[in-house]
Design brief:
By secondary structure, this protein is an alpha+beta fold. The radius of gyration is 24 Å and the shape is globular. The chain starts with 11 loop residues before the first strand and ends with a helix. It binds alpha-D-galactopyranuronic acid. The site of alpha-D-galactopyranuronic acid has 11 residues, from loops.
């Protein structure tokens, strides 16, 4: 996985990015014709990429096959894929390693008994949307296809470390913490093997012992808790990070961790025992030229703009972002909301009760918590966005997701974003209440007028009081209006103008800031994104134009207004 630092010094890892052979399979005949042994023909593409914009196949939905020769110097290889859109099937030398569903989460295959030397790796990416797709066809972003994020080949030798979660509990004064490591270990040899194992956290050795595993055995190990004193906390102003190194005789795994506490108390959100207000944006990890194969250098540029705007938080709408992006947030002290692509409006009642779909969502939550556990910047897990949470079956689904995140998700707040908060059954179950409403833009549930907001803040308080939920912190997780960059008007209330968007956001942000039970805002959205043709004609140019920057990151009038407000509220 591409990080801001080396994850391994002992282990040999090969970045499989670069040239791959590529062949389209619109009739889905590749498997029958044995392409998994090696492609019969093909053109060269650069991975990571999506085929839609880079290969001129904008509207192609279906299968694309990729082939790469890899060379290994070890007999056990771990193949790591950060994102294949959307169903991946992987073969090595014609042998099927497995399948993975889901566009935005990482997966891996461990292959034993590999001969040293050259091998043929074949991947089929299938972007077809079908009955059980997650998200469904009606979704407000583009259905790209391909190997969209990095691929690596890891040579595993001896007892190897697959994951390391640093689990901690800070003392009340936040000066010390009880810490242990939860390790997922694997013996890459066919015979039983013993190894030393140690965990260094900064300068402190928190574990030193030994382990014996049977041939190809995988085992979870939890080290005994130790107390760490004089903790330098991770906070938005002082994002202190510790390097953690797990080593065995033959392998290592390096990560960064930060100690911080996030909780809710008496209607407040407390970060390290201090009340915090969120000044945020929703951001898609998307670019019109690169799709979801978003280059890291552009992530840095986005972050510079977001920081310049005075934001202290980002919602990764609507899927887990790359680890390197979250590393950047860890380093800068920017808070992050990470969620799975359960994008509600597209999910019918039937879909929400479909066990395959529910299971796919749970699996995405498992992958998200497995691969992102240590990041201090992630302070919110999002379970789903705008599904119909007025039904008992969605309450059941929500409970299932919540319980998983509570048990395996570390110290984070858990929520969902609701677009019908006045009859939502699940909000009371969450740590914080998060609301997506578009008064002043859409007419649903209002008159389309800005004044609907004043009534809304009163109605919401009444509803929450009636349900016994008042006292949970409320975040406005989406609100906004579309503006066509460069379209200006002298008149008031001209929709699609930059001025209309600016004035609406100003009205909303000021109102939410002075509403005593609200604790922050994530405006919709940082920049325009290409959207799906399944959205109606309201999406002019097939873009969601609610960005306060256009899709090439040029600012609209609203950008400067939001910057002024966010900075003023923080005394900056
Ligand atoms: C929803 C949704 C966003 C976007 C937005 C809009 O709230 O969560 O992804 O589609 O509406 O622009 O209408």
């Amino acid at each position: 996985m591409k990080r801001l630092f080396n994850e391994h010094l002992k282990r040999k890892v090969t970045d499989l990015g670069g040239a791959w052979k590529f062949l389209l399979d619109p009739d889905k005949v590749g498997e029958e014709q044995g392409w998994y042994k090696g492609l019969p023909s093909g053109e060269t593409v650069i991975v990571p990429s999506v085929w839609n914009n880079e290969l001129g196949l904008l509207n192609y939905e279906g299968c694309g096959w990729y082939e790469k020769k890899i060379i290994t110097g070890a007999s056990t290889v771990l193949l790591e894929f950060e994102s294949v859109m959307t169903t991946a099937t992987v073969w090595l030398d014609g042998n099927k390693l497995g399948e993975h569903y889901g566009a935005f989460t990482q997966f891996e295959f461990i292959v034993n008994d590999v001969s040293l030397g050259e091998h043929t790796l074949v991947v089929r990416a299938d972007s077809t949307i079908e009955k059980n797709s997650f998200p469904q066809r009606y979704t407000d972003w583009f259905n790209y296809g391909g190997i969209a994020r990095d691929v690596f080949a890891h040579e595993l030798e001896g007892i190897s470390i697959l994951t390391n979660h640093i689990v901690y509990e800070l003392a009340d004064d936040l000066k010390s913490a009880k810490v242990c490591a939860e390790l997922d270990l694997y013996n890459a040899c066919k015979d039983e093997l013993s190894s030393s194992i140690s965990v260094m956290l900064g300068e402190t050795e928190i574990y030193n012992g030994s382990i014996t595993l049977g041939g190809y055995e995988r085992k979870s190990v939890v080290t005994p808790s130790v107390t760490l004193n004089d903790i330098a906390l991770w906070d938005t102003d002082t994002p202190n990070l510790y390097t953690v190194v797990v080593s065995t005789d033959t392998d290592d795994l390096i990560d960064k961790v930060g100690f911080r506490k996030i909780e809710v108390k008496n209607g407040d959100i407390l970060l390290n025992n201090k009340s915090i207000e969120f000044y945020g944006v929703n951001r898609h990890d998307e670019h019109p030229d690169w799709g979801f194969a978003f280059p890291a250098k552009l992530m840095k540029k986005d972050l510079d703009l977001i920081c310049d705007m005075g934001c202290n938080t980002i919602r990764g709408s609507h899927y887990p972002n790359t680890k390197i992006f979250v590393d950047m947030l860890d380093e800068r002290g920017i808070l992050f909301w990470s969620e799975i692509p359960m994008w509600g409006c597209g999910f019918s009642w039937e879909a929400l009760q479909n066990p395959v779909i529910i299971g796919r969502g749970l699996n995405m939550h498992k992958e998200m918590t497995r691969y992102y556990y240590n990041h201090p910047s992630i302070i919110i897990w999002g379970m789903h966005n705008e599904i119909d949470t007025s039904k008992d079956f969605t309450l059941d689904l929500t409970k299932q997701y919540y319980e998983h995140l509570r048990e395996f998700g570390g110290n984070r707040l858990i929520t969902h974003a609701s677009n019908h908060p006045l009859n939502d059954l699940c909000m009371g179950y969450n740590d914080i209440v998060c609301i997506n409403i578009y008064h002043g833009w859409y007419n649903y549930g209002g008159t389309g007028s800005l004044k609907d907001w004043d009534k809304f803040v009163v109605d919401l308080k009444n509803y929450m009081t009636e349900k016994g939920w008042f006292g949970k912190p409320v975040i406005m997780s989406e609100f906004g209006a579309a503006a066509l960059a460069g379209f200006h008007s002298h008149f008031d209330n001209v929709r699609w103008s930059e001025e209309y968007q600016r004035d609406l956001l100003e009205y909303c942000i000021e109102l939410f800031h002075k509403t005593d039970y609200m604790r922050g805002t994530y405006l919709w959205q940082f920049c325009n994104i290409r959207t799906s043709p399944s959205m109606d004609i309201n999406r002019v140019r097939y873009f969601n134009n609610k960005g306060i920057l256009d899709e090439y990151r040029n600012p609209k009038a609203a950008y400067f207004k939001v910057k002024e407000l966010y900075k003023r509220y923080q005394g900056k």
